[in-house]
Structure formats: C-alpha cells, structure tokens
Amino acid sequence: MKDLENLYKSEAYRGEVPNDYQGKVGWQSPSNIALVKYWGKKGKQIPQNPSISFTLSKCRSETFIGFEKADSFGFRFFFEGKENPAFGAKIEKFLLDYQAFFPFINQLSLNVESRNTFPHSSGIASSASSMSAFVMCLLDIENQIVIKQFDFQKASYFSRLASGSASRSVYPKMALWGATEAYEGSSDEYAVPLENDIHPIFKTYRDSILIVSGEKKTVSSRAGHGLMEGNPYAPARYAQANQNINKLLAALKSGDLDTFINITESEALQLHALMLCSNPSFILMKPNTLRIIEEVRNFRNETKIPLCFTLDAGPNVHLLYPEKEAEKVDDFIKNTLATYCNEGRWIADHVGDGPKPLL
Ligand code: PMV
Fold it and tell me: What is the pLDDT of residue 5?
C-alpha cells in the first residue's frame, strides 16, 4: 500500500501561494447511509471494521470557500448565511491538526459558507456531506496552487480524518471503507468506489427517509464510537461485521435481494443493540421507529415486495427498495407509514452521484 501520510506531506505538495492570490471554490457533496455500519474506531480515525454505504442524492451539503493570500491563517465559517463559531471551531481545529498536509493554509485567509439541501431538524447527520464538501473545496484550492489533477482517494483520506463516514461520500452509488480481504485495494485510510462491482438494481435504489423525530441526536457519534471501547460485545461485533461485509459484497454483485435485506436489517438492529448495552446505554429508537419496522416486515411478508429498512444512530427509518417498486412503496408510505412520522414528513431520496463542483 502507498505510504499516504508521507506522500501527502511530501515537498511536492508544499506550495507557495502567489502574492495577491485570491479566488473562490465551491463543491456540493452527498450524505450516505451505511448498510454495514462503522461503529467503533482506533488511532487516527481507523475503523474497527469495514463498512459499506449507499451514496445519497438529495441529502447534500453545498460549501463555498473564498480565499485570499494573507500574512497568517484566517478563518471564518458561515452556516446557512449565519456565522457559526462553534462549528467553525471544529473545522478550524481539523485544519490546524493536519496543517502539515496543507502547508499553504497558513498563507491564506478563508471564508467558508455552507448549507444543506435537506431540511433543518430532519435528524439527518450532516457531517459526512459537510466535511466531504469542505475537503473537496480544500483540495480544489490546493490543486489550483500546486497540483493539477483531482485525486478522489486523497479526498476520501482527508474526509475520513474529518469524519469517518465522510470518507465514503466522495464516490458515486456505493463505497467501501476499511481493509477487508474480500475486496482488493480496500483500505482503513480511505474508501474505495464500489460502483463497478454492484448489480444494476442497486444503482438506482431508493431510500425514503421517514422522519420519526427531528430532534438533535442525544449521543454524538464521537461518544458512541468511544463507548465501544468498554462494550463487552465489541469483539463479537467486529467479527460479525467482517462476515457481513463478505456476504454483502457477494449479494451486491449478484443482485441477491434476500441476503441484502437480511444483512441490512441485522446491521441496523445491531448498531442499536450495541448502544442499548453500552455503559451508559442509549435508547435511540422511538416507539414509532418500532411500529414502522413492524409494518415494513408485515408489508414485505404480505406483498413479497423487497422493501427493507436501515437506521442511523437515531430514530429515523431509511426504507430501501428497488426503483421499480417505487409506486407501491410510495402508496404504502402515504397510506400507512406517514402517520408515524413527525408532521407526516419523509424525504424521497435515492442512490446518487458523488461530489460535484459548483463553480
Ligand atoms: O462518521 P461518524 O463518526 O459520524 O460515524 C458514523 C456512524 C454511523 O453513521 C452510525 C454509521 C456509519 O457507518 O455511517
């Protein structure tokens, strides 16, 4: 494997910013939903097990960075038009921690503006989309100064350092992050694209996100990953995640929906089971989360439509299904599931493209 840490720090990347240099870059980047979950990490954002995700289409962050040559590093962060010092401080810390990789940064003053395309208080984690959009902008600036080609692997590497799941957001359709013998070229340090190794049915898969609660998460993912350290089931979980990766990769290739459903639902419930037995423990599902899960399983048994669910670290339910079932599932959501949603809200999303430049 390439020695990325040294490559990205090498002299070749040590750019001098020309005097009077200024400009603006902009990128939008998608959120993603994990099928095999990343829950537990070690060292510098190294996952305890590999994970696989769908890249989403509608849930995106759009980030612009205005930059100009300055005597020292300057940084301001605006979220949806308003200065947000708390989030800004988090991103600034990331930049300062990894300054060795971005030596040009202390010669620039940066003005960052970011917004999400998904609604406020939808309970959707935005760190994957926002951090990957930010990193895309940063690499764009670097490319303008010193390098003339875009390296998505590098974008994934730095997105991972900012937020683990963000490493998977830089590729279209599906991504795998974490070293596994089941996939050549996979790595703990960056995600790899899976688009060429999946059955066509998954390339247009739907994800209808049922908003059970729009409240802020009660446990941050940083705290959640931390709790895995004392969790007595952690070793069994990591072993099982690896087995699930092997089985899911085969099912994704062949289009085996039964295995896909089995693993996806089991992974979602395991993530929540791990939180239930952490110390302190967290119950992140709401009564309506369970009602929806029951309804989905009944619907699948009765109709044989291959609809399944997954969950993130919160109460909202992602409904996953092939595009050709969209009409029937839409009716099911409207007629049966919407009543369990907060103000009847859901987001009709689907598997989508990777990041795109906005300027
Ligand atoms: O990237 P983080 O540190 O926010 O962790 C994400 C964890 C989950 O969303 C629960 C699972 C995953 O693999 O995305």
Answer: 80
Q: Tokens 């895995």 belong to which residue?
A: 228
For residue 8, pLDDT over 90 is answered with no
Chain segment 53-79, per-residue pLDDT in tens = 999 999 999 999 999 999 999 999 999
Give the C-alpha separation, 155 to 164, whole Å. 12
Helix (H, G, I), strand (E, B) or coil at 68: strand
Ligand 1 atom nearest the C-alpha of 164 is: 1
- Position in ligand 1 atom list of the atom nearest CA 38: 13
Kindly list the protein residues whose Cβ atom lies closer than 6 A to any atom of ligand 1: 34, 37-39, 51, 125, 127, 163-165, 221, 271, 312-313
Per-residue confidence (pLDDT) for residue 11, from 0 to 100:
63
| Beta strands per DSSP E along 155-200 | 174-177, 191-193
Q: Ligand 1 center to residue 325 CA distance, Å?
A: 28
Would you say the C-alpha torsion 226, 229, 230, 234 has a positive or negative sign? positive
- Per residue in 201-227, pLDDT (tens digit) is 999 999 999 999 988 777 888 999 999
CA of 179 to the centre of ligand 1 (A): 17
**pTM as predicted:** 0.96
**Cis peptide before 280, with omega less than 30 degrees from 0?**
yes
Query: Ligand 1: which of 31, 36, 38 to mutate, most ligand atoms within 8 Å of CB?
Result: 38
The alpha carbon of 236 and the centre of ligand 1 are apart by a number of angstroms equal to: 19
Q: Which residue has the tokens 């060795």?
A: 100
Question: Which of 33, 39, 127, 161 should be mutated for ligand 1, with most atoms under 8 A from CB?
Answer: 39
Residue 316 has phi, psi (to 5 degrees) of -75, 150
pLDDT above 90 covers what percent of the chain? 82
Strand, coil or helix: 42: strand
Q: Are 52 and 175 in contact (CB under 8 A)?
A: yes
- The Å distance, Cα 95 to ligand 1 centre, comes to 21
Please give the average per-residue pLDDT across 274-287, as a whole number. Answer: 96
**Structure tokens that stand for 226 in this block:** 């931390």
* pLDDT of 122 above 80: no
pLDDT of 181 > 70? The answer is yes
Per-residue tokens: 110: 């940066």
